[in-house]
Amino acid sequence: MNATQTGIIAGLVLGLAAAQSFGTFLITLAVGVIGLVVGRVLDGELDLGDVFGRGKDK
User: Fold this and answer.
1) Distance between CA 39 and CA 22 in Å, rounded?
2) Nearest CA-CA partner of 34 in 57, 53, 7, 58
3) What are the extents of the domains in the chain?
4) Is pLDDT of 57 > 70?
5) Contact in structure between 4 and 33 (CB atoms under 8 Å)
6) What per-residue confidence (pLDDT) applies to 24?
7) CA separation (Å) from 54 to 1, 42, 45?
8) What is each CA distance from 14 to 22, 34, 44, 46, in whole angstroms?
9) CB atoms near residue 38 (< 10 Å)
10) DSSP assignment of 18-46, as one string?
């Protein structure tokens, strides 16, 4: 299991622990996406400099 998979699973588990309503769904979705992004960064598949507009050439 790589960091991307671990990140999204951790994010979803943390989101499910929040509450039991539609708000829970939204929290779970948001925390899952955060976990996915963190996992991609740790795997080296996503460069935050490119996401925020700062390229490697500057």
Assistant:
1) 26
2) 7
3) 3-42
4) no
5) no
6) 74
7) 30, 19, 16
8) 15, 11, 23, 22
9) 18
10) T-SSHHHHHHHHHHHHHHHHHHHHHHTS-
Which DSSP symbol is given to 52?
T
Amino acid at 51: V
Query: At 35, which amino acid appears?
Result: G
Assigned token pair, 3: 């960091």
Q: How far apart are CA 42 and CA 50, in angstroms?
A: 15
pLDDT digits (tens, 9 = 90+) for 17-56: 665 777 777 877 787 788 888 888 888 887 877 767 765 5
